[in-house]
Amino acid sequence: VSATRTDVPPRPRAIDEALVVGRDREDVVVGDEIVRHRLASRSVHWAVALTFFLSLFTGLPIWLPYFHFLSGLVGGLQVCRWVHPWAGVAFAILSVFQFIIWIGDMRSVPGEKSWGASGMIRYLRYENDETDVGKYNSGQKLFFFAVSLGALVLFLTGLVMWFPLTFPVIVREIAILLHDASFIAFAAAIVWHIYLGTAAEPGTFGSMVRGTVTTTWARLHHPGWYREVTGRAPREVPPRARREPPPP
Amino acid sequence: MATNTLQTLEIRRSSASAHGTLSGMRTLPTVSKYIDTSTCIGCKACEVACQQWNDLPPLANEQLGTYQTRPTLDAGFWNLIRFDEREVDGGLMWLLRKDQCMHCAEPGCLEACPAPGAIVQYENGIVDVNQDNCIACGYCSTGCPFDVPRFHKTTGKMAKCTLCIDRVSVGLEPACIKACPTGCLKFGTKDDLVALARGRVSHLKELGFANAAVYDPQGVSGTTVVTVLAHGDHPEWYGLPRDPHVPLGVRFWKSVVRPLGVLAIAGAFFAAVGHYLSFGPKEVRGSSDPDANIPPMPPPDERRTP
Q: What is the pTM (predicted TM-score) of this model?
């Protein structure tokens, strides 16, 4: 064994360039991928998700006795009653960070046409043919503002329910009804958020884990964003995909 | 559910549970506590007996400038003689009422309670709290139309009059009744005591209390505590609500909003399943052309025209 061998090729480096770029930048093309969510966005998203599910599993057994079995996950209903408000506070604080991170991209762009109910249906039937869908489509923007409002209502009504004896009975009654209503809307929306982000639209889940999407994904789901990020029209075949015709 | 509730008594209803532990083999008459506010002399023997029997901490009196021991009920003080004085028809009246849990036939506390078995209603009508199961959420306070539940300062557990369930279940009368020197408190079956109260009311009317009445509010399907009021047209003078009922919000959230909410969330889930089965995943597929399924781009000058 010699310490002076020079014929060994340099060790291949295991650096994944997309991940490195994604630490602090997004909307950047790396190879045939585009960084869609930088590390901060992904971290906040998963922190919100974690505290949401903690609140969910500690809140459901208090909400309806059908879900009493879930209280065993944290060690009983008394623990649920203790954990739920604190998980809710963490959820509310993280939701504020999430709002700040995303609000810039969620403002409606001049000239953007909101979908409305018919647009939403065409989107779900895979029939929407808009070519200027930006980084977030109308449904995503609606979801963003709905969950932000929902988090605010859940937090304020939750405070009343946390310290019920400091509020008049009628305030508690209204708070509990609003907490219920916003939770139901929130939970139904989250079911579809998870469905659309995983099974329905392959490649989307990766954008929240690895942070990247493929250019093909971007052209399909967000052609306007694709154009902005790559400077190419979505229909244009990217140069690396262009193949020479086979010789005759 | 913990089983440290008294097993000699069957449970008619249990909070956050589909049903109690009623076997259906026995029926018990509803027991009752009779309170005649017109013969109470404010001696507070019942207050002392309650503290003593239930082993409650000795609380210092809080002077209000009246003959009332303290401002309100407490987690460690379940039986309070409320005092008020009023001028009625030119005469001064001392209004004394024994404030405690009314043991409603339809208990709002039990209905609101989310903890299985924390509040139970025994077959004999007594509403009891099982502190082992209590989670200190305070919902019972929202559900109670009489503002009875009180919460321990550090544990947050709810406490209130048990109608001396431990004495009643072995054939004894409640401690407060045992101690009452004037006979203004009596213990028996509800039917007997309602008859007694009606007799007392007609006697009071003969004595000139034209508005004397029995307080057994039907908004909560009657209370196990039967109260005779000399001024039955003004229950609020005694600190009693005129028409108590379980708050509508409590009923609405428990029996309408939450079950419908479960259906709505399940509906969203099954709609997603149906969508996946009907439309499948949205992706570029089935062609070597990477641009398949991608909508064509309009000329630049036509973009974003309204």
A: 0.87
